[in-house]
Design goal:
Layout (H helix, E strand, L loop, with lengths): L3 E3 L2 E5 L5 H14 L16 E8 L2 E10 L5 E7 L6 H18 L6 H19 L1
Antiparallel strand pairs: 1-2, 2-3, 3-4, 4-5
Length: 130
């Protein structure tokens, strides 16, 4: 497994077992910030495609995800539980996520389409589970 550690924080690729923790962090962040549009489905392109998680003592404390921004470019962002956020940890998590993105969507010619399809499918699936 490709794991990176920053002061007792481990960075791992996301898997199904960590998805509920990621969803919880996303929903807490969505609730805390008013920059999310009201009235949308719970999971939209804002949710993106989670790529990597940050764990402390076997608990998911943050995750990095990729979205396609308004210019159509890929953008890696992260959400954290407030007490665990640090610039260094965020940098390491985003670096891990970029490596995951590059390995999952290696072909530059089909990357944008495949990425958007993956984001849409995950959002649709999560919305149907709600």
């Amino acid at each position: 497994m490709d794991t990176t550690t920053t002061t007792n924080i481990q960075f791992n690729p996301i898997d199904v077992s960590s998805l509920q923790s990621v969803v919880n962090i996303y929903q807490n962040k969505k609730h805390d910030h008013h920059d999310f549009e009201i009235g949308l489905s719970p999971f939209t392109n804002h949710f993106g495609l989670p790529l990597s998680i940050a764990c402390f003592e076997n608990r998911v404390i943050g995750y990095a995800f990729v979205i396609r921004n308004k210019a159509g470019e890929t953008e890696i962002n992260s959400y954290w539980e407030k007490e665990f956020y640090s610039i260094e940890a965020e940098h390491d998590l985003k670096f891990h996520a970029q490596k995951t993105l590059d390995s999952m969507f290696a072909d530059p010619e089909t990357r944008a389409i495949k990425l958007q399809n993956a984001i849409d499918r995950l959002s649709n699936w999560l919305n149907s589970c709600n």
